[in-house]
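Quick review question:
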């Protein structure tokens, strides 16, 4: 699976964090992978779940960093789709040495355009530009 596809699957699982407790996420992961909608290798599944768990472990810090960059916005005001995308991108920018900041931002904007509302791409780009 390509990196962008892996990132999209991580985003989809990260989005579920907004609706489920952290304790429920292993079950959510199983439901996600076992639904039959997505066929992944064990290697890809391991990569996706490892990244998801690392992002979730860093969420308080990610939210703190986002709050520091968003002027006039709070975490609570940001749409859930956009928040999941921002958390993923900030994680990649700040904690994942394998992903260049420009790639993380570009991929986040594409996810926002695909899954968010009509202004999501601009919003995500504006917030993440402050991290570059």
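Suggested answer, residue by residue:
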């Amino acid at each position: 699976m390509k990196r962008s596809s892996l990132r999209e699957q991580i985003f989809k699982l990260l989005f579920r964090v907004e609706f489920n407790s952290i304790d429920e996420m292993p079950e959510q992961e199983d439901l996600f992978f076992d639904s039959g909608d997505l066929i992944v290798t064990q290697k890809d599944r391991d990569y996706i779940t490892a990244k998801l768990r690392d992002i979730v472990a860093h969420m308080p810090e990610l939210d703190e960093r986002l709050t520091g960059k968003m002027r006039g916005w709070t975490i609570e005001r940001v749409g859930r789709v956009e928040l999941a995308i921002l958390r993923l991108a900030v994680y990649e920018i700040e904690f994942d040495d394998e992903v260049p900041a420009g790639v993380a931002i570009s991929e986040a904007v594409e996810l926002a355009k695909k899954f968010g509302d009509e202004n999501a791409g601009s919003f995500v780009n504006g917030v993440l530009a402050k991290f570059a």
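Why it works: The radius of gyration is 14 Å. The domain at 3-129 is CATH 1.10.940.10 (N-utilizing Substance Protein B Homolog; Chain A).
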